[in-house]
Design goal:
about 400 residues; alpha+beta; 3 domains; ten-stranded antiparallel beta sheet; two-stranded antiparallel sheet; about 35% helix
Length: about 400
């Protein structure tokens, strides 16, 4: 089941922009589920108001009882709730002759909700085309502390201290103060969202009577951090290298008393591709993954000013290599690999990209759990450094 994403559905003000009638139309098939979580939805068509603060809380803390169809709907709606996504959805609806019943100032999320309710199959087609080549990017930092210390979610006082320290950095970098650290424990992981300002922007506006105007405002950004409690590692999805470094140090210092609890190096390696070849694609011992194939590798040939980068692509590189008698060797300095992964709950394969030693890109944030299990079983995750990693470059930002 897709994990309900954190940003657009975490803010009750954003949910309000969708509108009560559209929201009720989307959620009414799951009224019993929401009632069990403390939210009674208005009956469709009676004009009642939705309790958006409670709704946002429910979206931020999904559990195994969350209906699979609802999670999938919210995942797709979230991904398309952008100005560009709104345009794509409206164009598709117009081509099919669907009247979405929207007014002139509809929010992108309202457009997404309305089309999902009217024609979810058409929505999925537009989504697949729009997001075909837009993976999510995480940098992973692994603690060297063994055994991994006990973890407890930060208290309100600890969060306030973290926010105060980060505000100093954000203010210096022209992002303003007032950041917030939100905490969402999820079984073996603890998810954090850091909400903060982005640099101020000025944009032209189109006024109701056709006049030109302008607004000066500070956009909001939501960065995501996922802490793996058992393995002592943190995955960070943030807007800049500076923000990732800030989070790495602040979370280490305030959660574990050590600013360098999450060192800035060393998690992934590609040596299993060299050592095991096609056998490194085995996934029979990972429930939820049907098959894995390598579809792209990047190698660094030579050293210094004469070094060249060589990229090889194909739907299944190991099958291609075997057909023509080619094999990867230990002398090949692998810099990057892209895998196609077929999940049991998906009709199409999704991709994961690994840059040694700590950079991973997923198409969906929630793919990380199964992919990390597979990477660990095949030896792509470093447990004890060995000589084979000497040539693998560290990916920066």
């Amino acid at each position: 089941m897709a994990t309900i994403t954190l940003n657009r559905f975490s803010n009750h003000d954003t949910l309000k922009r969708i509108g009560d009638s559209f929201m009720v139309e989307l959620l009414s098939p799951y009224a019993a589920f929401f009632a069990g979580r403390g939210l009674r939805l208005p009956a469709p068509g009676n004009g009642g108001a939705v309790d958006y603060e409670t709704l946002a809380r429910i979206f931020m803390t999904p559990d195994r009882d969350t209906p699979k169809q609802l999670a999938e709907a919210l995942y797709h709606i979230h991904d398309m709730s952008t100005p560009e996504g709104m345009d794509k959805l409206q164009e598709a609806a117009e081509r099919k002759g669907l009247d979405l019943g929207l007014n002139g100032d509809a929010h992108p999320a309202a457009v997404a909700v309305r089309l999902w309710v009217r024609d979810s199959r058409l929505f999925e087609e537009v989504h697949a085309e729009y997001h075909l080549a837009r993976p999510k990017s995480f940098l992973t930092f692994l603690s060297e502390r063994r055994p991994v210390p006990a973890f407890a979610p930060p208290t309100a006082e600890t969060r306030a201290a973290m926010e105060a320290r980060m505000d100093l950095w954000f203010d210096k970098k022209r992002r303003g103060r007032g950041c917030r650290v939100l905490v969402y424990p999820r079984g073996p992981e603890c998810w954090f969202m850091v909400r903060h300002g982005k640099p101020w922007q000025r944009e032209g506006t189109h006024e109701p009577q056709g006049e030109s105007g302008s607004v000066f405002y500070q956009p909001q950004q939501h960065d995501v951090l996922v802490y793996d409690i058992e393995h002592g590692e943190i995955r960070i999805h943030a807007g800049s290298k500076g923000e990732r470094e800030l989070y790495r140090k602040v979370f280490g210092a305030h959660l574990f008393g050590d600013e360098n609890f999450f060192p800035g190096d060393g998690k992934y390696r590609l040596t299993p591709l060299l050592r095991d070849g096609a056998k490194s694609m085995n996934c029979l011992d990972v429930e939820g993954i049907e098959w894995v194939r390598v579809r792209e590798i990047e190698m660094l040939c030579g050293h210094g000013i004469g070094a060249e980068r060589e990229i090889r692509k194909g739907p299944d590189l190991f099958a291609s290599f075997e057909a023509r008698g080619f094999r990867l060797t230990a002398e090949m300095n692998l810099q990057r690999a892209v895998f196609s992964v077929k999940f049991a709950d998906s009709k199409t394969a999704r991709s994961v990209t690994i840059h040694p030693t700590n950079h991973a890109k997923y198409e969906r944030d929630d793919d990380g759990g199964l992919l990390e299990a597979w990477l660990a079983k095949r030896g792509f995750i470093i447990e004890e450094p060995d000589e084979d990693e000497a040539g693998e470059a560290v990916e920066g930002s």
